[in-house]
Structures are given as C-alpha cells and as structure tokens.
Amino acid sequence: MPILHRLQLRGRPIPLxxxxxxVAIGISLGxxxxxxxxxxxxxxxxxxxRQLQPPVxxxxxxxxxxxVEAIEFRQVRAQGRFLADWPVYLDNRPHDGKAGFYLLMPFxxxxxxxxxxxxxxxxxxxxxxxxxxxxxxxxxGETTIAGLAVASPGHVLQLGAASPVRPHAMLQNADLAAxxxxxxxxxxxxxxxxxxxxxxxxxxxxxxxxxxxxxxxxLVRDWPKPSLGVDKHRGYALQWYGLALTAFLFFIVSGFxxxxxxxxx
Length: 265
What we know:
The protein is α+β, with helices and mostly antiparallel strands. The chain is 33% helix and 24% strand.
C-alpha cells in the first residue's frame, strides 16, 4: 500500500497544521541561533585582527573623525584625568558567580573639555544593601589610560523604567547619548574598556570616603569577549532543530499508527 495512502492525511488538518507550525518555528529559531553564533565568531575575528594594529591616541584630533565602526575593538590610549565626582554604576553584572557592578567614569583629555566614558572595571555589590556604593579607587590628577574601544559596555534586560542619569546613579544599561546629555560635555562616540593597571590612585568608597594614596584601585578588569556564548548558541540551535525533527517524526509515526489501527474494507 502506498505510503501517502497509509498516512491517510484526510481528516487530520489540525494535527498537520500544528506540525507545520512546530517545524517552521524550530527551523526558524535554529537558524537564528546559528546566525548569532556566526556573528560572534565574526566579532572575535575582527577583535583579533584589530588588536594587532597600533593603539589609537585619543589626544590626536584625527581620532574625533573616526566612526564607531572603524575604531571599535582597537586599542586606545589617552592622557588626562578622571572626573571622580561622576561615577555611574551598571547593575546586574555578575562575575564568577558574584553580583556586582561595572564602574563607568568620564575621563577628560588633557588640554580639552572633551571626555571619553571609561568602563574602569567590575566591583562586587554589597550583599546586604544593594544601594550601597562599592569601594573603589581613582587615580590622582593627570594619568594615562589604555583600553579597548567598544560601542557598548554590554546590555542586559531592562527591568522597569530606566533610572535618571546623574552622578552615583545605578543603571541597568548605559545609553551614551543620555550620559553625555547629563554630563554636558563634548564626548567621543564610544566607550573604553580599561585594561591597564593605572598609576598612583586615591581610594574612595562612595561619596564620603577618605582619600589616601594606594597602589591599586580594587577593580576587576576581566572583560567578557564578544564571542562569549558561541557554544551556547550552537547548543540552542541543535535543540530547536531537534524540536522540528521530533514534531515531524511524531506526525509521521502517529499517522502510520492511526492508519494501521483502522480496519480495511
């Protein structure tokens, strides 16, 4: 008996439609996860190639004309000073299983009012009081920083309305336009993930900390790579493809069983 006749698809439009929808969703989401994996691999390759290029000096006026796409993932260097009275904390940034913040701070270039927003590193959050500003340290006076130019210091799911941007604000995500508008300073169109250790610094724990010379700033600079999660995306893709295949096979097998259960005349 022919296979199509044995399946007896007539009278089964609803299971057929449900199967087609499940297969389409599984293949579509599997392709999307595969595409995300490819995007992250491409980012990793671009990161590797650009890190081989010489650092960009942000003190150079020519750097102002660079679009974000051209300078992203390039090593940069700048001389100036941190505006220590303008820390901003990015919340919901875990590290090694611990809750914490990324510390953002504007860095004003020498002989200029122009600033670049620097992601200085990671800080652990107070387990008892999530609103407590963590202890950190800021370089004294003029200093030189080095880091990686990035379009964003990372994005997390926004829970509720965004908090207003102001000094000492605890935000979930950093919007560069909103930061610059609140600071009222000309700024570069990208962030810098700081990678150097820094020089002589003064400790600060929130707003009212004593300032003393210290040899380290207490920040963790273990930035996640753009390719982080490639294997996760591939695993999700296999799961979605598996769902599509399972739905298709279930429809075929159930069709054969239904056909075999019916007596022939």
